[in-house]
From TrEMBL:
Keyword check for Lyase: yes
Entry superkingdom: Bacteria
Species assigned in the record: Streptomyces stephensoniae
Keywords attached to this entry: Lipid metabolism, Lyase
Protein's UniProt keywords contain Nucleus: no
Record-given protein name: Enoyl-CoA hydratase family protein
Assigned protein family: Belongs to the enoyl-CoA hydratase/isomerase family.
Highest classification ranks of the organism: Bacteria, Bacillati, Actinomycetota, Actinomycetes, Kitasatosporales
Pfam assignment, any one: ECH_1
InterPro entries: ClpP/crotonase-like_dom_sf, Enoyl-CoA_hydra/iso
């Protein structure tokens, strides 16, 4: 697991996750990501943060194998708290966050992208919540920030994905670009934001969070309660072991 931070432009910090093979993060990884995003936002010289990923896709959610190795609920409790920390770090980052999304953005990836202030996506990017196929519930809070309510519900119930081009049509993606131009395009947007006054940007971020119609932190934690209920009932483990292929 590697989380690195770079400074490719004045006022811009790029936080990159690299956890092969698919950036499905263990508990420790979510906390490391949260710490890196918070540190980048607290940097007095930073005025915008880009959240990016190396490898085959942006984020494939949680490490299912970590949950399967735990006969109890400690891993589930741990990952619930860790995901909440990472999502909160992106949402509450002191400066705007631009998500640079390529490949798959699934499960926890939706939590990260949905909490960002802006999204630049590669042409290959797909977004979705396969939670019902993984024995989990959650991040509908964040998917609802990307698509209209009825589409969110349909995607959630079916575990289908939508493309970057479809999200562009809904206005939740800023630009869709060739994959080899993704990071440069995200940094370009971040640099444009970073040219604004740093103090005003931090005030603007706090103000915009303050007028959100949904408390995303409380809403997500509410969802997670049902994931835990599914685990206690045995439903989650049965579905998780078959990836939703049988009841």
């Amino acid at each position: 697991m590697t989380v690195s931070t770079a400074s490719p432009a004045d006022g811009v910090r790029v936080v990159t996750v690299d956890h092969p093979p698919v950036n499905a993060l263990p508990v420790r990884g979510w906390y490391e990501l949260a710490d890196a995003v918070r540190a980048a936002g607290r940097d007095p010289e930073a005025r915008c943060v880009v959240l990016a990923a190396a490898g085959r896709g942006f984020n494939a959610g949680v490490d299912i194998k970590e949950l399967q190795r735990d006969p109890g609920n400690a891993a589930l409790i741990g990952v619930n708290r860790a995901c909440a920390e990472a999502f909160e770090a992106v949402y509450a980052c002191e400066v705007p966050v631009v998500a640079a999304v390529h490949g798959f953005c699934l499960g926890g990836g939706i939590g990260l992208a949905g909490n960002a202030d802006a999204i630049v996506a590669g042409e290959d990017a797909v977004f979705g919540l396969p939670e019902l196929d993984r024995g989990a519930l959650g991040a509908a809070t964040h998917l609802a920030r990307l698509v209209p309510q009825h589409l969110m519900r349909t995607l959630y119930y079916t575990a289908r994905t939508v493309t970057a081009a479809e999200l562009l049509a809904h206005g939740s993606v800023w630009r869709v670009v060739p994959v080899d131009e993704l990071l440069d395009s995200a940094v370009e947007l971040a640099a444009e934001i970073a040219r604004k006054d740093g103090g005003l940007l931090r005030l603007a971020k706090a103000a915009l969070n303050g007028i959100d119609p949904v408390d995303v932190r409380r809403s997500y934690r509410f969802e997670q309660g049902f994931t835990f209920e599914a685990s206690l009932s045995g439903t989650a483990g049965r579905v998780r072991d078959t990836f939703g292929k049988e009841a």
